[in-house]
Each structure stands twice: as structure tokens, then as C-alpha cells.
Amino acid sequence: IGDSLKVAPAISKSAVNEGESMELQCTTTRGFTEHTFLSVTWSIRKESSPLEEILTFGPDDKIKVGPNYTQRYTDSGLQLDLRGGGFYGLVLKRAKPSDQGEYVCTAQEWVRQGEEGRNWRKILEKSEEMGKVVVTPT
């Protein structure tokens, strides 16, 4: 399988006021799609801290939420926008000052393997910096 995975990230607003919503958009394209599955992960890097996972969608259409975002997801503060055509959006509602930082979108391509395809094996990964978001406290 050739490396045809591409990720085009965009952020709806690079500066938001506390309490506003913003959308982190990842558009993924890939050449060969038969028998492969996609996952998309949104992460944030705050200052010099390591990359922190916000949410992953896929490869089995399941959602995995990063440990620091579980409560926010439960409270509907994170919402997926899956309009198809390779578009994956994550809406962060009610922005907080802690949402300030550099956002990264990572797409991964997977195949099923093992008995009855129970296991996932990652075959490709592409990470793109989405850019920095500044949150102005109210």
C-alpha cells in the first residue's frame, strides 16, 4: 500500500473568547481504501508540555476520549462533526483558558488482522500541526 494518506487541518478561529465554541477540522484523503480503516486523533500541546490527546475517532467508529477530557465529553462539551467525504470536525464548546495551545491532528490507517480480524494493525500515520489557539479570559 503506497503512502497516500494526507491530512489538511484547519481551525475555525485562532482566537476565541472564553465561553465561545471553536471547531478543529481535519480533512483526510487516501488513495487506497479497500480493507483499510481510518482513525483521527485531535491533540493539544500546551507550552512545553508533551502532546495531550483530546479525542480519537476510529478505526472502528468508536470514540476514545483523553483522560483530561472525559468529563467535558460527558457534559457534551466536545462534539464530533462527521459530515463525510473525509471531513472530521471536533467542536470544543465553552472554551476555557486551558484550551489555549497548539493543536495537532493525526490520521492513522489501520488493517484488521488475526483471528476473525479482531486485532488492529497500524500501517500509516500522518500528523499535521493545526496551529495555535489563543483563548482570552472574560
TrEMBL record:
PROSITE patterns: IG_LIKE (PS50835). Residues 9-125 form the Ig-like domain. InterPro entries: Ig-like_dom (IPR007110), Ig-like_dom_sf (IPR036179), Ig-like_fold (IPR013783), Ig_sub (IPR003599), IgSF_V-set/TM_domain (IPR051102), Immunoglobulin_dom (IPR013151). The keyword Disulfide bond applies. Keywords: Disulfide bond, Immunoglobulin domain, Signal. Transmembrane segments: none annotated. Pfam families: ig. PANTHER family: PROSTAGLANDIN F2 RECEPTOR NEGATIVE REGULATOR, V-SET AND TRANSMEMBRANE DOMAIN-CONTAINING PROTEIN. This is Ig-like domain-containing protein. It comes from Cirrhinus mrigala.
